[in-house]
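Box 3.1 — From sequence to structure: Sphingoid long chain base kinase 4
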Amino acid sequence: MDAPISLSVASGHHISTFSLTPTSLLVSRTGDKKWPQIETDVYNVIWAELTDNNVLEISLLARKKKSAPLSFVQINVNLHDKDKVAANAFTDALMSAAYTGVKRQRRLKVLVNPKSGPGNAVQHYIKQVEPIFRAARCLIDTTFTTHVKHGLDIAKELPLDDFDVVVTVSGDGLVHEVLNGFAAHADPTRAFRTPLTPVPSGSGNGLAVNLLGVQDGYDVAAAALNAVKGLPMSVDLFSVTQKDRRVFSFMSQVVGLLADLDLRTERLRFMGSNRFILGYLHGVIVKRRCPVKLSIKVAEADKHRMVHNLHNSRSKTTLRSPRAEPPSPDSGPATSKSPLPPMSPLPPLSLPSATLPELQHTDADADGWIAFDKPLVYMYAGKGPYVSRDLMQFPVSLPDDGLIDIVIQEMTSRRVLLHGMEVAHKGEQYWLESQRYLKAQAYRVEPYSKKGCLAVDGEAYPFEAFQVEVHQGLATLLSPCGFYKVEFDFPGKKKGAP
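Predicted structure (token representation):
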């Protein structure tokens, strides 16, 4: 579509005008006091059709102003018979543009955690998320979790042929459960290929912020739309092994101050993400040394080169035009057994279908490992730039580079630690001299004290020796753009400057 397509219809004393461009939909409606003018991206159009009763129905998301969250808007216009042909042609063009390369009417397995974060997940789902799913004519199977590891149990037994996407309405903890349920599935490799996407309703919501960006990372409407239209994106997972136990991590492993502030502020969940700020301030005052020895199989340690690699990766992903996914042979509504078409063929995993990847880095004394035994405040390792809206911990993280980003905060003054908190929402603590930043294939932590905390994806684990290694592209998320929606650059460089 090159030239705009327009439709103008009169209903009573009111006129509704619609104009479709290659990238946006413009709506003008006389008599509509709440939404007289709408301009929204075509991606935000949820559904459009002409009913048997001659009613033009268009469901979409729009913003009242640029900085506002997305709002669900339902437009219904009664048509005269003379307008039916033009209206049908317009809705066909609008749906084709809105769902370019994306399967319609996805089959969603939805998990809602009523106790997540501040406790508003159920309200989010009923009032904002479910109406969007129903407007998109999705087939929905919803479970409200009732106990710890309920999500793991469901994912472990999930009938993979019945669903296109798993949606978690919760914080990052339920994502952790689902992924470990996939690992315990009878066909784990295929389970990990089932796209997973979060609707932010927890305290941190780091994964949602990484996928949707800072503005929309806490917007449940934007997250619901991603479940309806997002495209599959491969992402690395980590094996975390302790003694004979193995769990999978998607976001982070933390020891020291930042683990303490996460796990020891659980009673303050009602405060949302503010509990992390309170916990950090307490930790800075105490400034307790983290009692661990680190061994790391380092792949990259040059901060400037890592920023260059981030920009190069983003350029290549953008050039691939992730929204231009090849359409399926049937461009109409999907049947209940239609598979979810990929953004582009996901790379095959080099392991049998019903097995988990073998551990490759079991000897921390082998060549290529370095030891770090200087005094440190915390060690934070993971994937994805943001771990919460106020903390861009891994600003140069890439979804599937096969590496884990490791931040080591050496012992330093309280002034430096407070400055790090002040600029953490932009990731600028990355440039602190006292903060080591490495990319690694694996690492090992050995505590020399029994007093301490270990958090894996925000969940408490025993403070004992553990080892982590990366499995490249093992899991699948949904993304609107094919990369982490986060901006990061060299100090002092203006946004958009060459």
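Summary of the box: Residues 321 and 481 are 8 Å apart (CA to CA).
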